[in-house]
Amino acid sequence: GENVGLHLPTLSVQEGDNSIINCAYSNSASDYFIWYKQESGKGPQFIIDIRSNMDKRQGQRVTVLLNKTVKHLSLQIAATQPGDSAVYFCAENLGNTGNQFYFGTGTSLTVIP
Amino acid sequence: DARVTQTPRHKVTEMGQEVTMRCQPILGHNTVFWYRQTMMQGLELLAYFRNRAPLDDSGMPKDRFSAEMPDATLATLKIQPSEPRDSAVYFCASGLRVWAPGGHTIYFGEGSWLTVV
């Protein structure tokens, strides 16, 4: 039978444009969030994290925004480059009481040269 | 660069055979996780350890899977007997849990790509 698999949201952007990847998390008690990038054939790679006492955090070319009211997380990538093409996952964690990280299904980003 | 090391990187085995995957966490990290990634389920947590003690293995099929940490530098995930549905990428991740509010970052290895035929 056909292997349906997970339906990954996809995003295609032109090289040089900004990318915004969104993530809805499930647990209102989660207080720590991480964005990971996974390139084909590799393990997830840490990009940036944010704690629930913050709304925004910036890194090199990346910004994470957290909206706890609607349980929404976004990753913004400035001046997207071909090397940014990958699957991006958000992960949530119950920092003080839990050790488990729960991962979203991921978004596949394709950068068009 | 400190990194999580996994072996083997690729494994093809016949149904019914035992498979052992090994992980060397980043030196000094006290939590170790095993995840499985498939197209159908995405990333699933199988088990995790803190200070070598298993804290949760509820995501792991108990009848055939077992996870251990013989010492602080080695974590193992064993499947016996293996089945075709076990075909997946198995990731090990490690982190440093400190006793403070807020979580801690975990870092992944490159995965063990298992195919059971």
Describe this structure in words.
The complex is a heterodimer of chains A (113) and B (117). By secondary structure, chain A is mainly β. In chain A, the strands form two sheets. In chain A, strands 1, 3, 4, 8, 9 and 10 form a six-stranded mixed beta sheet that branches. Chain A has a four-stranded antiparallel beta sheet with strand order 2-7-6-5, with no helix packed on it. The mean pLDDT of chain A is 88. Chain B is mainly β and 117 residues long. In chain B, strand 4 and strand 5 form a beta hairpin. Chain B is globular. Classes of the chains: A mainly beta (113), B mainly beta (117). Chains A and B meet through strand 3, strand 4 and strand 9 of A and strand 5 and strand 10 of B.
From N to C, what is the helix and strand string of chain B? Answer: EEEEEEEEEEE
State the total count of DSSP E strands of chain B.
Answer: 11
Biggest beta sheet attributes of chain A? 6 strands, mixed
Q: Summarize the amount of helix of chain B as a percent range.
A: under 10%
Parts with pLDDT < 50 across at least 5 consecutive residues of chain B: none
- Could you give the distance between the termini of chain B? 36 Å
CA(first)-CA(last) distance of chain A = 36 Å
Strand content of chain A: over 45%
As an assembly, this protein is heterodimer
CA radius of gyration of chain A is 14 Å
